[in-house]
Amino acid sequence: MKIGLIDADGHNFPNIPLMKISAYHKTRGDQVEWYNPIISGHVDRVYMSKVFSFTPDYDLPIYADQIIKGGSGYCIEKVGGKEEYNAAADRQLPEEIEHIYPDYSLYPELTKDTAFGFLTRGCPRGCDFCHVAKKEGRCSVKVADLSEFWKDQKKICLCDPNIMACKDWKELFDQLIASKAIIDFNQGIDVRLATREKIEGLNQMRIRRIHLAWDKPEDHLEEYFERFSKYYKRKNESGKVVYVLTNFNSTIKEDLYRIYTLRSLKFDPYIMIYDKEKADETHKRMARWVNNRIIWRSCERFEDYK
């Protein structure tokens, strides 16, 4: 078969399902390529995938006998201005594809010396702004061993929504420690579940920058960040980044409280604007102030940021 792939989001981050689909078809002897209507011409099948619902769909002609669309971007839809999960449009990978070693050759620059994948799926939090609980369930469960997507790469990028909530966390942590690779928890660690034992596990990993989150102002997480700061040991104090959600259901005052509290505890906040299209100038200015580290280090108060 002649297989075409379309990454609707672009090529700024590896699309893991497409890498697995490519690997599967190549083991069958099929021809796999990035789809281009001019170069590819007619193909037997095209797989289209996108992660983000706001990504415009592929608008060029597709000459294929079969077109298969999948990914969060196709099952999360905007309804009445809000994003809703559509279970009927959620297409899952077959087991034989889900658990195959990814074809990293699709993204040679992005995946150079770096493995990407999920060890767990699901999250118990059920936050209104997040669709993980509806899509993957409110229980964090182990879905893979590290060897399923890692073969001695120097770095490992984990996309797990809440690995701390998984009952098998110790087994998975031991695999990450044994790899001796540089670990990136890119979705953020749940600081409420970061017990001393789990933090000591993190201390045994090679982590350059740890990501945590403080999304909701009504969650009073000060003591949890204090505990994390107490037990998490690194030479570089600036390697602790906390995602701070704004423009969802918080006031500027509540946003600044989280930002100033994190600064006092020696964490670096990183502003995540929920709806960038409708965000007002204050939210955008706040993001520029915090997320530009040069400005963040030199200007301690938002009130002083010009």
Task: Write up what this structure looks like.
InterPro entries: rSAM_sf. It comes from Dorea longicatena. By secondary structure, the chain is an alpha/beta fold. Helix content is 27%, strand content 21%. The protein is built from ten helices and 14 strands. The protein has helices at 16-27, 72-75, 95-98, 132-136, 169-179, 196-203, 222-231, 252-264, 281-291, 293-298; strands at residues 2-7, 31-34, 43-49, 64-70, 76-79, 82-85, 114-117, 120-121, 141-142, 155-158, 182-185, 210-213, 240-246, 268-273. Strands 2-1-3-4 form a four-stranded parallel beta sheet. Strands 7-10-11 form a three-stranded parallel beta sheet, with no helix packed on it. The radius of gyration is 21 Å and the shape is globular.
In DSSP terms, counting alpha (H) and pi (I) runs of 4 or more, how many helices?
10
* Name of the level-1 CATH class of the domain at 1-105: Alpha Beta
Gyration radius (Cα, Å) is 21 Å
Shape annotation: globular
Q: Which stretches are low in confidence, meaning pLDDT under 50 for 5 or more residues running?
A: none
Query: What is the N-to-C succession of helices and strands?
Result: EHEEEHEEHEEHEEHEHEHEHEHH
Q: Enumerate the strands of the largest sheet in spatial order, edge to edge or round the barrel.
A: 2-1-3-4
Organism: Dorea longicatena
InterPro entries: rSAM_sf (IPR058240)
Protein name: Radical SAM protein
